[in-house]
Amino acid sequence: MAASCVALLALVLLLPVLLLVAWKRGRRAGAVPHVVVVVLGDVGRSPRMQYHALSLAQNGFSVTLLGFYSEWRAGTWEGCSARSLAGPRVLQYGVKVVFQAVYLLWKLMCTDPAAYIFLQNPPGLPAIAVCWLVGCICGSRLVIDWHNYGYSIMGLVHGPQHPIVLLAKWYEKFFGRLSHLNLCVTNAMREDLAENWRIRAVTVYDKPASFFKETPLDLQHELFMKLSRTYSAFQSCSEPSEPGMERSAFTERDCRSGVVRSLHGRPALLVSSTSWTEDEDFSILLRALESRCVAAFAARSLSVTFLLCVGKGPLREHYRHLIGQKHLQHVQFCTPWLEAEDYPLLLGSADLGVCLHMSSSGLDLPMKVVDMFGCCLPVCAVSFKCLHELVRHGENGLVFKDAEELAAQLQMLFSKFPDPAGKLNQFRKELRESEQLRWDESWQRTVLPLVTHSDLQARVGGTGSHPSCSGRDVW
């Protein structure tokens, strides 16, 4: 009797789930292929996943993009939990993970059934397990796009041997193997996934979107004048010599003819973008600007405006405090909050980009450099394990190891500024002439065949055996 009651109770509990599975799978039959792109964070800071969504939509898929639409939303639960929960951080992590798992599960189950679920990792805790579970229920294939390892980022804060970090590593490895298809951002990561995680992946390099390009001089002037209304670094130090002229720190426009020209003796414009996280050490830059390169700037009366295009990150106030303590002649710091459409315009207007991203795993590449290259902006980037897959020292940019090397590079690059024969313009010319694929073309040649041909799907599964399969095989 008791056994019959237990069986009846189990049937009652399982029946809604079985009915939901049948309904979800039935809705998929005969419909336009649907893909859900998932980012368990701020979508605005996940351009690669935005490009996936756009490219899928342009190729006939119905696409749902799930993620937070602003940094405030992405950080709301973390901030609330920190204020409302007493006790150790482990408890706060646990509550946050449970909340996110339930919320993501609800959102995915309320979404139309998908043929594929594209998931960005990191963050993958708890997203990988939730997406895999929904895939089992709805018959969806799970595609993980490995940008980095989540556990290695956590290790920057807690240390590599912290129990939370070790648990996160086990979770990432175990559930990562349950995916049907894996993409990654470098060949070094593809090899590491295969050797240490038994996960087969395809390398899909980041490429710049079409709106990352050199900015025409008239648009540069409009941007500088817009920013000058808020930031003094963009304001002209002197009034125009003639009436009817409009001037910023870098450009001036004849309001009658509309002609725009660069100012003679204008400052050099250096740009770096950051979200103020532990994998970017801006003290390297500050030490470089305090060294001999600054003396060279002073000797030539060359002023420099260094722009940090920033987000809201944990180390923002720390570095802003350090910057505030510096009294560097001929160098101005500006930390603007840019509108989304202004960021590509600024990169396309700058003279040099500086990247201080040091990969937590040594296996990912900085997207900011990809965007800079799209704008034909020369780059100085701090060295790490696989950076050579993007920045080739002396060919399309320069690589440095410490503040002294960066200082020497800045001195060399600006030794003839703004002479067209200088090294900066040589790098820019080489970037213009390079045959770099844009994102759309790259995606068409790599990702699209994977999601449209079942034979490739079978070969590139999470634990499938295809020792020869790589990005080149797909191309």
From TrEMBL:
One Pfam family matching this protein: Glyco_trans_1_4
Protein's pathway: Protein modification; protein glycosylation
Enzyme Commission numbers on file: 2.4.1.142
Signal peptide limits: 1-29
InterPro entries, A to Z: ALG1-like
Alphabetized SUPFAM superfamilies for the sequence: UDP-Glycosyltransferase/glycogen phosphorylase (SSF53756)
Membrane topology qualifier: Single-pass membrane protein
Function according to Swiss-Prot or TrEMBL: Mannosyltransferase that operates in the biosynthetic pathway of dolichol-linked oligosaccharides, the glycan precursors employed in protein asparagine (N)-glycosylation. The assembly of dolichol-linked oligosaccharides begins on the cytosolic side of the endoplasmic reticulum membrane and finishes in its lumen. The sequential addition of sugars to dolichol pyrophosphate produces dolichol-linked oligosaccharides containing fourteen sugars, including two GlcNAcs, nine mannoses and three glucoses.
Family recorded in the similarity comment: Belongs to the glycosyltransferase group 1 family. Glycosyltransferase 33 subfamily.
Record-given protein name: Chitobiosyldiphosphodolichol beta-mannosyltransferase
Species in which this protein is naturally found: Peromyscus maniculatus bairdii
Lineage of origin: Eukaryota, Metazoa, Chordata, Craniata, Vertebrata
